Amino acid sequence: MAGRDPTGRNYEGTRAAVDDAGAERIARLHLALAGGAAARFANRAEIGAAARIEARYPGTGAQFAAAYAFHSRAARRAVDGGGAAGVVFGAAGFPGAAPLHREAAQAAPGARFLYADPSPSAVYLNGELLAGPGVRAARASVRDPEGLMGLPEVRAVGSPLQLHLQLCAHFWPEDMCRDIVGRYAGLLPPGSTLALSLWSPDGTRAGREFLAELASEAGHPAYGHSCAAVGRWLRGAGMRLLGPGVADVRAHGRPWAPWAALGIRSPGRAAGAVARVR
């Protein structure tokens, strides 16, 4: 059977589309994996799941925390010298240890930011805890590019902008990833950038076992996309990769720390990329 996204498109796999409840559970699990203050909105079930994953695959939580830091750095670079008027966090989830826009807002006080998520609970908390001058929250699914980009709140961010797809592509089959990236490439204003992150397994048996465990704890199938595949989605959509390309999230914005020397021990990595619309 094929799964469907919010606009009715069919994709490979039995449950390609994550419903709102599933997206909320996944967001809470990611926060629990990141640990510390980031886990404050995770439920006991997600905290337990994160502890089981970390016990079996030490260092995993640090990589998920690094993925949030990657998005924070990317947002800052976008508005501070990158030409973006603002940033849309398209799979915002719940507020983490530090707001993703904080560094960017400090570097560019006039920039505008939007936290978008399909979960009413996440939208409420983002609105209550993060909203203020230049910062808003809205309900929308990143899996519906036309719906998200059509929001008046997105238009208010300005142009060009940077759109973030945080830790969601490893729950989408490849054809869905390729399609969604291509649609965003056609919808984003000229000069805009797309920043995405995902868990990318290392291709070993341990990598496949980790992905299966992540899927079991998340309650949704997970897909093992390579960094090379992510690059193909972005280049195939006519976008230009920036920085180190598709690489470990800890390498982005840190030229002094090549990712090969970062001591990756888990069966995969949190990978990230930033690409510009041509």
Q: Can you give a write-up of this model?
A:
Helix 1 crosses helix 2. This protein has 278 residues and is of the alpha/beta class. The protein is globular, with a radius of gyration of 17 Å. The termini are far apart. It has a single domain, classed as 3-Layer(aba) Sandwich (Rossmann fold), CATH 3.40.50.150. The chain has helices spanning 20-34, 44-56, 60-79, 102-107, 120-129, 145-149, 152-157, 174-187, 205-218, 227-236; strands at residues 3-4, 10-11, 86-89, 112-117, 135-139, 161-165, 193-201, 239-241, 247-248, 268-277. It contains 10 helices and 10 strands.
- Give the uncertain stretches in residue-range form: 256-264
The tally of domains stands at 1
| Overall geometric form | globular
Amino- and carboxy-terminal Cα gap: 36 Å
Mean pLDDT: 87
Q: Report the portion of residues in β strands.
A: 15-25%
| CATH evolutionary superfamily | Vaccinia Virus protein VP39
Total count of strands: 10
CATH fold naming: Rossmann fold
Largest sheet: 8 strands, mixed
From the 3D coordinates, which CATH architecture would you assign?
3-Layer(aba) Sandwich
- Class per helix and strand makeup: alpha/beta
Number of helices: 10
C-alpha-based Rg, rounded: 17 Å
Secondary-structure element series:
EEHHHEHEHEHHEHEHHEEE
Give the % helix.
40-55%
